[in-house]
Specification:
The chain is an alpha/beta fold. It has 3 domains: about 55 residues, no CATH class; about 120 residues, 3-Layer(aba) Sandwich (Rossmann fold), CATH 3.40.50.10090; about 130 residues, Rossmann fold (3-Layer(aba) Sandwich), CATH 3.40.50.10090. The protein has 13 helices and 13 strands. The strands form 3 sheets. A 6-stranded mixed beta sheet has the order 5-10-9-6-7-8, sandwiched between helices. Strands 4-3-11-12-13 form a 5-stranded parallel beta sheet, sandwiched between helices. Helix 5 packs parallel to helix 6, helix 7 packs parallel to helix 8 and helix 10 runs parallel beside helix 12. The chain is elongated, with a radius of gyration of 22 Å.
């Protein structure tokens, strides 16, 4: 059978008949949709055996847990599959609306009073523009303000909404972002920061210390995932322990350790991959040993760091 024509349904049909399915996972012959189907098949409770292809891909057969929220995980999962890995989607956070949406909605209707609108995550960008569109506005509402992004991922999210970042931090950290913003806005200015309900205060504190007023408004809230999602993740873990787990924010680490009190034991023998130093600090604070850290602090860099780690 030609690889490009293999379907997950075919694999499942043979597996349910008791046949061990040998799957060449994530070879370039498969489309992204086919890879997702095969990955789902591998995660199903049927006898599927993964064997490496000749000239195996960098992460061939490696099982990597992706802890991002469900609506964000597919991009990273797709990048892992293209390198031969089996991406195990086990979100430790769920993105939800703020407890009180009124303050941000009011700020959106008065954007002309801000010298700069600062974004510290792609989630903040998406949540902000939901409020903008609900108010009957569009990207032109930002015409009087500069727009700042903490890193390339956040800038890319702005670009998807038709906005180019005027200020971009050299390093994906609040302290570096504050330096970049302070170079562009004078003392006495006002900055809007739509962000998660719980986040580091290094960025707004640095602005305030330099005479810039900051309105820190809740744009979204991260919450633990539903119990059934946690139960499914534990079941998959018990069936076949992963080779690595990827943490893409401190909140994913905090929630993982809250959901699984025996996290250190659960991660014994599992490579902990961190997206950057802030997330790594959170891992260590909670007793987790970090095996690898990406630089720059982006999803593509994290996938490349996993590739380099297992190549060693």
């Amino acid at each position: 059978m030609v690889a490009a024509r293999v379907r997950a349904e075919d694999l499942l049909e043979h597996a349910r008949d008791g046949v061990v399915v040998r799957a060449l996972v994530a070879t370039p012959a498969f489309s992204d949709d086919a890879l997702a189907e095969i990955a789902a098949t591998v995660e199903a409770p049927v006898p599927v055996e993964i064997i490496p292809a000749e000239g195996a891909l960098p992460l061939s057969g490696k099982r990597v847990v992706v802890t991002r929220a469900s609506e964000q995980a597919e991009g990273m999962a797709r990048a892992l599959r293209r390198r031969g890995a089996v991406a195990i989607l086990a979100p430790t956070i769920a993105i939800g609306p703020p407890d009180d949406p009124a303050p941000l909605a009011e700020a959106v209707r008065a954007l002309d009073r801000y010298a700069l609108v600062a974004f510290t995550s792609a989630n903040g960008v998406d949540a902000f523009f939901r409020v903008v569109f609900e108010a009957g506005l569009d990207a032109r509402a930002l015409r009087a303000a500069l727009v700042g992004a903490i890193g390339p991922g956040t800038a890319a999210s702005l670009a998807r909404h038709g906005v180019r970042a005027d200020v971009l931090a050299d390093e994906h950290r609040g302290e570096a972002f504050a330096e970049a913003v302070l170079a562009r806005v004078p003392r006495g200015s006002r900055v809007l920061l739509p962000r998660a309900a719980v986040a580091r205060n290094a960025f707004p504190d640095a602005l305030v210390a330099n005479g810039v007023a900051v309105d820190v408004l809740e744009a979204y809230r991260t919450r633990p995932p539903p119990p059934e999602v946690v139960a499914a993740a534990l079941a998959r873990w018990a069936e076949s322990p992963p080779d690595a787990i990827a943490f893409t924010a401190s909140s994913t680490v905090d929630n993982f350790c809250s959901l699984f009190p025996d996290a250190r034991a659960l991660l014994r023998g599992v490579a902990v991959a961190s997206i950057g130093p802030i997330t790594s600090d959170t891992c260590r604070r909670l007793g987790l040993e970090v095996a690898l850290e990406s630089s720059p602090y982006t999803i593509p860099a994290l996938v490349s760091a996993l590739e380099a780690h297992f190549a060693r």
